[in-house]
Amino acid sequence: MSWLEPFVDTDCCDIVTIGRRSGSPHEIEIWFGVDGDTLYLISGNGPGADWYRNALADPRVSVRIGQQRQRGLARPVLDVDEREHVGDLMGAKYLWDGDPSIGLTRRKWCYEVPVLAIGSWVAER
User: Fold this and answer.
1) CATH superfamily, region 5-117
2) What's the rounded Cα separation, in Å, for the pair 74 and 39?
3) Exposure winner among 20, 29, 65, 119, fewest CB in 10 A?
């Protein structure tokens, strides 16, 4: 059983990335999806979001859900079928209509903006 299984229906997680310029940890709260042992994050602000760019520069990230904290490795989701699967997964979990202030429709959020997958978990002590 994956450590993520009990958190499938949890709304948010915290992710810590290492700043690509500063080298300092940066923490955000974000929606997430789970499929098996993989956690998915959608970058609604596109490829320019700091957390996304940080994870691309240094894929070692820390994730906290509830009292559980794990370290993992992030990778961009580039496979078209995997990206569609993530859109279906996140669209089913979050009934959200988008954010017109940044031109983000529900369809674009579900199926077009960048996604990170995190796996290869190691428990933090």
Assistant:
1) Electron Transport, Fmn-binding Protein; Chain A (2.30.110.10)
2) 9
3) 29
